[in-house]
Write a structure and sequence with these properties.
This is OmpA family protein. It holds the Pfam family OmpA. Keywords: Cell outer membrane, Membrane. InterPro entries: Bact_OuterMem_StrucFunc, OMP_bac, OmpA-like, OmpA-like_sf. The chain is an alpha/beta fold and 711 residues long. The chain is built from 18 helices and 32 strands. The chain has a 6-stranded mixed beta sheet. 33% of the residues are buried.
Amino acid sequence: MNAWRLSLISGFLLVTILTIWALASTLGEVEADIGARVDSQLSLDGQPWASAKIRGRTVIVMGTSPTLISQRLAVESAERVWGVGRVVDGSGVIPLQSPYTWSATRAGDQVEISGFVPSEEARLAVMASADREMPTLNLEDKLVLSRGQPIGFLVLTDFALKRLAELENGSVSLTGSGLTIDGTAVDEARFASAARAISASIPAGGQLRNVRVLPPLKKAFTWTLVYDGKSVEQKGYVPSVAVRRDIADALAVALPGVPMIDATQLASGGPEGFSFAAVFAAYQLARLDTGSISINESLLSIEGKAKTVPDYEMALAEIEARRSKRAVGVGIGSVDLLPARVDPYVWRADRAGTSVVMTGYVPSVEAHDEVLSAAARLFPDLTVLDHVRVADGDPKMDWIGALKYALEQLSWLSKGSVALTGRQYDIVGEAVSTSAYSNLTEALKKTLPASMELRRSAVSPGAVSPFVFAAARVPDGLTLSGYVPTDEVVQKIIAAARPKFGPDRIELRLLLAGGAPDGFVEAVDVALQAVSRLQGGRFDLVDTKLSLFGVAVSEGAKADIEATVRANLPEDFELTPSLTVAVGGDPLSAADCQVALRTESVREKVQFDGATARILPSSFGLLDRIAAIVQRCPVATVEIGAHTDSSGGTRRNQALSVERAQSVVNHLVSDGVRRERLSPVGYGGSRPIASNSKAAGRAQNRRIEFGIVGQ
């Protein structure tokens, strides 16, 4: 019985295991079948991003959807499959990006594509388009999946990649549907192709945001006009179609009816200011019988034969005017103009940097070699660029001796030029040192050799460092010492000092030297104004550092002086003040006080700004001295009497005199004088001291008088 039971139980277990195995095998086949049919349906419904994960008859939709709609449609596709019991959405959605950006950048043989794409399919399409347009380049994919793309995204990226393929270096980018293109074209054909594509409408509703496509880059950017007297040939490179048209228009005006052969190519890499220089060159052809004009990188060079002597002179004048203006980008290089007969007969040598450039004329080949040898001897460490031509017409003088003398003087300049126009000699530049400047100055004072006549001398001294200048008040005078850059600056400083210091003697102990900082004259003017208000005042200016010393009449005056200097000093100048406050001298009696006041007002007048009551700063020093005198008369009351001339009408003059008297009172109060000790009175034109019929008399009548009116 027990054996039967054991046999029955064993059989039951075996049947159960076989049943479970059969069911599991069947379930696996069902799940595999459902999964295959769901995946097929998803693909047929255009949702290849999604895949099915099966648990029994439950389908879990997996993957990353490009949109919320696609996510919902994938679930619906799975639900329509026969045999599916339930559908669970386990998918995700790629993130939404705003703004939606995309870019491709080309540098050499590398292309980097970055930004956003809406799906893996779109990524593949973009990279395929890039590979099709630029098959020989290395492509780097840095794209990120994201939603929010504009309508027609793939059409726009395809258009942009076509434009990138036309660039040697550059980038294309999309922000929404806005397209930006920036770069340099591979060649002129692709530059034209890009221009045509950009000028047409952008596909898929795209809009151009920024476009900067340059012609192909040429490192050796050259351009030449050649005129043989019958036609003009233009060769080399131009930066744009517009510039090419401007040159053609200029040639049509300069040489009307003369055929023009244009063999130029479009290219970028030209110097700044090329178009202006090229148009200038085109107009110069009108003055040439034959010749050529070229721009090589940043230098414009002219060679040829002038039609007439006036054309030769005008061409030189215009070239020199352009040289003196220091036109941006393209400067003047070699100038080799040969007239039919040279008159005036000219020669010039320019020294700048590491080179000496000689242009002009000599009467023979032997003379040319002699001048070149002299230049090589005088400038052994410099490059001598020889553009001297042999021509007829030299003046009846020792022309070669004159050129050698001029070259010797050029060797004393760190930069500059020497030139001869017939017998007339010009020298311009900066001396290599103070001693060289002295030698040049002394030499130019003497009779020049070879019958030369000095026409122009504009040589500045060598630079010194530090550049120092000082001014100091002495009894009845002002001493100026240190360095100044030119005699003209000396005159400007004296002109600035004279109204501030009245009849004071100005003693000059100045040396000429280069190296003055920018704003030097303005800084000296500001410092002189401060010294004019200080007893025992002086200043030292070392490059841009100003040290100011002296005694102010009051704390208010001291503060005002320092504030005015700081406010008016040029940029980069620094002030170090060392000012004190004191009123010197013993107390004065009323009579002595009156004498002192009269002495100051007779010696110097209070000046106003035109027909106003604003006191000119040049009179602040006088009023500070008046304030010092009044403070030494501690019990006196001072009348401030303002007088005008007869111009302007009686009422207006009366009101103006009252305003001026009050302005003087206000200044004295700011200098520390108590207001109750001052009595402003406006007399208008009622008390003239000279005839108003003449300007000199009217000037005397316009005055401020200071009088003691009480104790």
